[in-house]
Amino acid sequence: MAFDRDATLKKAEKLLRQGRLEPAIAEYVRVVDECPRDWSTANTLGELHARAGQPQQAVGQYTRIAQHFVDEGFYPKAAALYKKILKLQPQDETTQIQLADISARQGLLADAKSYLNAIAARRRAKGDRRGAAEIVVRLGTIDPADFEARLAAARTLEEMGEEEEAGKRFKALHDDLLEKGRTAEAIDALKEFVRINPLEREARSALAKAALEQGDLAGAREFLDEDSAGDDPALLLPLVEIELRSGELTRAKGVLGRLLVADPTRRGVVADLGWSFVGSSPETTFLCIDAAVDSSVAEQEFQQAATSLQEYTARVPGQIPALLRLVEVCVDGGLEQTMYDAQEQLTDAYLAANQAAEARVIAEDLVAREPWEPAHIDRFRRALVMLRVPDPDTLIAERLSGQAPFMAHDPFFDGAVAAPAAAESEGVPAAQGGEALEDEAPVASGAAEAPEPPKAVLPVSPSGGDEIDLTSELGDLDDTAGGDAAANTASAVTPGALDQAFARIRTDAESDADFSTQHMTLARTYLEIGMHDEAVASLQTAVRSPRQRFEAAAALGRVYERRGEPALAIEWFERAAEAPPPTAEAGRELLYGLGTLLDGAGETSRALAVFLELQADAGDYRDVPARIDRLARVQTGG
């Protein structure tokens, strides 16, 4: 027979009105069993169980109905039912947790925390530490804005041995606190995260950078090392700064190498970092510059490497390691003129440091290459004096005479091969059997207007280096003093004779004994057929001769002007201006070109000075007066 719900409910109501509670409950139970989703009848049944002193049965009905309302999203109705249960069972933690959860979903955060705190207090009172900890963890999920509760929850999880989850909580706290602008608290949370996860590179780097921003080197060092940095340039760069600021230069050097291998484009950043130390620790600056130079050399960028070292030696003069490195780079990169300049600075640095033996070696090289330069002779003499060499002037004369030849070697020019070749080009037979060529008579200083005599070729030492045998020069001096004295030239040279020998050296140099005429002739040929790049090398060799310096330097200036490199053009025009011009007109034309270049480069003051000098010499030369007027107005702001 089919169940009649309405008749059963009507019968239950009659029994209830008759005060027969138990039979009425039985009828309601029948209805709920047959119609389990009859929530109204189930609620009535729960109330009857409560009236009948049957709390367990009442709680069962209330719980079933409350869960249904939670599932359907009817949180207020569910909360009302759980509160009924709490009246029947005030210590029921499950109900309190459910009420806390429902309150949080409704945004009633204070109610939710109240329910959970009551549970935690009760568990602590019973000595249930783990149970209380679980509630603390749950409290950390109630309110995202309650950072203290969230922090307590993360710490509690770690104490419970759930380190992975604790780490996640600390990291989430860091992110949220940072977003809120609470940087200090965010850093503290991230420190807790790293303590649990020490291999997290990104977090360690962030902590190191934060510490560096506060000037806390020790704090930064705690979170960043070579292992954690790996090959990540973003981590290696702050590690370099940590090591440098801590004075750990050896470790910094290793990290710098790894950084620039991983990312060579950071050479500029490394150099800038080094320059920040130049006032307090030049050796730290050089460490960075040297690392950048290594990286440039590895990429075959020798000019960039040399430029970095030149800047360092200009700002920190006299640094021997830097000058040695510059010479090395110049030799490897074929930067001839830069190497010569570096050798001069290196010799001066050795002399200043009382390293006479090293200074002597380079000074001899300089004198052998350019014996007419008084500065080189002076460096050589100073080195000999520091070494306590008796009668240094006599020793220098012996070197120049060939009795004790210079042991210099120019890495850019093999004189043992080039000199005979050049000699043959002038009609002079090459030496036979490895012997030096004999000097032809030097050109007299007053023979400038006479027909040009054959070029004199300075003999080449049999040793094969770039040596100059001046035995005949010094011997001639002795011959003028007495015929028999010529046999003892090397042992009887006086300081006065040395001065005369130097004068003869300069005369020979000006007579083109260094083959500058051949190089200049070759350069003219290249320029005439438009081979400007090929002409540069010959011009740079010819310019070393005083006789060819004006024409060669001016030609180099014009080549670089044509290339669109005004800075180099100005430099060579200025060098030409330092040499005597072959004619007054040539000198004026050079000054006019130099002034024009300076004007175009925006060098108003320098251009004005050049044109004023030209006007003083040549009057109203070309449009010089108009240029002077315009430049003067520009300089005065008119």
State the gist of this model.
Helices cover 71% and strands 0% of the residues. The chain has 638 residues and is mostly helical.
Descriptive overview:
The chain is an all-alpha fold and 638 residues long. The protein contains 34 helices and no strands. Helix 20 packs antiparallel against helix 21.
Key descriptive features of the protein:
mainly alpha; elongated; 638 residues; 71% helix; 0% strand
Task: Chart the SSEs and their pairings.
Layout: H1 5-17, H2 21-34, H3 39-51, H4 55-72, H5 75-88, H6 93-105, H7 109-125, H8 129-139, H9 147-159, H10 163-179, H11 183-196, H12 201-213, H13 217-223, H14 226-229, H15 233-245, H16 249-262, H17 267-275, H18 282-298, H19 302-315, H20 320-333, H21 336-352, H22 356-369, H23 374-386, H24 392-401, H25 415-425, H26 471-481, H27 495-510, H28 516-528, H29 532-542, H30 549-563, H31 566-577, H32 584-600, H33 604-618, H34 624-636
Helix pairs in contact: 1-2, 2-3, 3-4, 4-5, 5-6, 6-7, 7-8, 8-9, 9-10, 10-11, 11-12, 12-13, 12-15, 15-16, 16-18, 17-18, 18-19, 19-20, 20-21, 21-22, 21-23, 22-23, 26-27, 28-29, 29-30, 30-31, 31-32, 32-33, 33-34
